[in-house]
Design a protein that fits this description.
Length: 559
């Protein structure tokens, strides 16, 4: 495998609105991010991904972009962004931004011109179609609920949107539009951006006939992703995008890819793949409900273990994936993947260790390094997220009571990851001196960065040791390029694997159960690299793992 500059890096996702507010308006901003660069450097972060900070009406939290060349004033100015780039560079850190090019905002100049003249040049930047017998052109349900086709007032036309109606999809078949997007991507890369996280990119290829599909819900509609899954040829668009932009700048790209077809992984992230890497969502997909959040199954440990192991084994044949526990679109990992008894500092460290030492690029989401958890929500009014509100109504329509629907949302809402970062135990967790745009998780007095700074045994200080171990001169090679080899898969509660190359073999073993587990060691142990329960005695033939214990061992006899 050709070695790339980003292979041994550790990434950190910032959701700017909730990271740190420097001016008291209740919204996180660029100045807040700049002030915490040393904190991120101390954590061992190399690459910082900023969720969208472009000009936007914020119908979908900035994923509805009205000007690709402007910073939203809520976050600051272009001068402050340039300062962030410069300050990151001083610290040998890289900034990547979200690239949202499947759709834009209905406030974007292109769409405003298209609405004024759907038959004109800008009309072809989008998908306008005539209705059928007074109905929309086809029966697709958008990701946020409701029909994907929105009527254009005063005409018999509809425009297509896979997300909110304020997010019209861009017509990638139009070479002129593609060139506009490439110009914009290159503009940011020339500015000094190191790359992009690429949003919802698989959706750019449409079946231009927009055929109906068999309905899959009581609304008579079919999920729009069925059209995405049924169409071929997205790879040609993706290669064109790469050739005209990323490749010229040796940019790092991490794509959000769902609905990939069998056997396509090498085309996406192989030696000449469309992207540097893609996120591994295999574990997150385990809680997809058949009809929505209300019938989402709880996470089963063995299914979770198998999903991660299968994914690791598949991907190491061709490239690197990006490993996550949580992000801005998912609930908190501690609350999702750990049973109730394990939602402790020890369990949090265990989950982090298992994730960060996998083969691939580790992504830490803001607050994960202090063990932030799902919040407590008392009413649907407390939520901001468009998707949560939709899922609440889906649950109520399916017959759930208000309390039951709220429980479902409390478990699955994206707003769990969007509550402000808990910096200290003071008012609003130190996030803002004003009124926070989204309520602070009430557990901030117990879980916050400042108190963890003082505690050598805290989750934060453990995460620092964990990242430092991964990146250390002695172990960087095996943790970056070493093979992933599953182990102890016949156990009920143990997640364990080796990372190994010609020189080294390291065992990562974690006990997710409530009872102590004894494992027979396959190899003698040379040293303990890391333990979340401060184990110092090197095990001989047997390894005893207490409940929620994880240990990282270098084996002695590997050649």
């Amino acid at each position: 495998m050709n070695q790339k500059w980003w292979h041994d890096k550790v990434a950190y996702q910032i959701y700017p609105k909730s990271f740190l507010d420097s001016n008291g308006d209740g919204i996180g901003d660029l100045r807040g991010i700049i002030s915490k660069l040393d904190y991120l450097k101390a954590l061992g972060v190399d690459i910082i991904w900023l969720s969208p900070i472009y000009k936007s009406p914020f119908v979908d939290q900035g994923y509805d972009i009205s000007d690709y060349y402007a910073i939203a004033e809520e976050f600051g100015t272009m001068e402050e962004f340039d300062e962030l780039l410069a300050e990151a560079k001083k610290r040998d850190m890289y900034i990547i931004m979200d690239l949202v090019i499947n759709h834009c905002s209905d406030q974007h100049e292109w769409f405003q011109k298209a609405l004024a003249n759907p038959e004109g040049e800008y009309g072809d930047y989008f998908y306008f179609r005539k209705g059928k017998d007074g109905n929309p052109p086809s029966n697709y349900r958008s990701y946020f609920g409701g029909n994907c086709w929105e009527p254009v007032p005063g005409t018999d036309l509809y425009y297509f949107h896979m997300f909110a109606k304020e997010q019209p999809d861009l017509n990638w078949e139009n070479p002129r539009l593609r060139q506009e997007l490439y110009n914009m991507v290159n503009w940011w890369l020339e500015k000094g951006l190191a790359g992009f996280r690429i949003d919802a990119i698989i959706n750019i290829k449409k079946n231009l006939d927009f055929p109906d599909f068999e309905p899959d819900g009581p609304d008579g509609l079919a999920g729009c992703w069925k059209m995405v899954e049924s169409v071929d040829g997205v790879g040609e668009f993706l290669q064109d995008l790469k050739r005209n932009t990323f490749q010229k700048h040796d940019a790092f790209t991490v794509a959000e890819v769902f609905n990939m077809k069998e056997g396509e992984l090498p085309a996406f992230i192989g030696e000449d793949g469309h992207f540097s890497t893609i996120f591994d969502f295999s574990a997150h997909c385990l809680s997809d409900g058949a009809h929505g959040w209300y019938d989402a199954p709880p996470i089963d440990f063995k299914a979770w273990r198998k999903a991660i192991m299968d994914s690791q084994l598949e991907v190491q044949e061709c490239g690197f994936e990006a490993n996550i526990i949580e992000n801005h679109d998912e609930p908190r990992g501690v609350s999702r993947f750990l049973p109730e008894y394990a939602r402790t500092a020890a369990g949090t460290k265990m989950l982090g260790t298992v994730s960060l030492l996998l083969r691939g690029i580790p992504f830490i989401y803001q607050g994960q390094e202090i063990g932030m958890q799902n919040s407590v929500w008392n009413s649907i009014e407390e939520y901001d997220d468009i998707s949560t509100k939709d899922q609440y109504h889906v649950a109520r329509e399916a017959g759930l009571t208000d309390a039951e629907a709220l429980t479902v949302c409390g478990r699955m809402s994206r707003d769990n990851a969007r509550t402000p970062v808990q910096w200290n135990g003071q008012a609003n967790a130190g996030f803002t001196t004003g009124t926070p745009w989204l309520k602070v998780n009430p557990n901030y007095t117990a879980i916050n960065a400042e108190s963890q700074e003082q505690d050598p045994d805290s989750v934060l200080n453990y995460y620092r040791r964990l990242v430092a171990t991964r990146k250390s001169a002695e172990y960087k090679e095996v943790f970056t390029y070493g093979k992933f080899v599953p182990s102890y898969t016949d156990t009920e509660t143990v997640m364990a694997y080796y990372r190994e190359d010609e020189q080294k073999q390291v065992l990562v073993a974690a006990n997710f159960g409530e009872e102590t587990v004894t494992l027979k060691l396959d190899h003698p142990v040379k040293r303990i690299l890391l333990s979340n329960q401060n184990t110092t005695e090197i095990p001989a033939q047997l390894l005893n793992l207490k409940s929620c214990e994880v240990i990282v061992l270098e084996c002695a006899d590997h050649m």
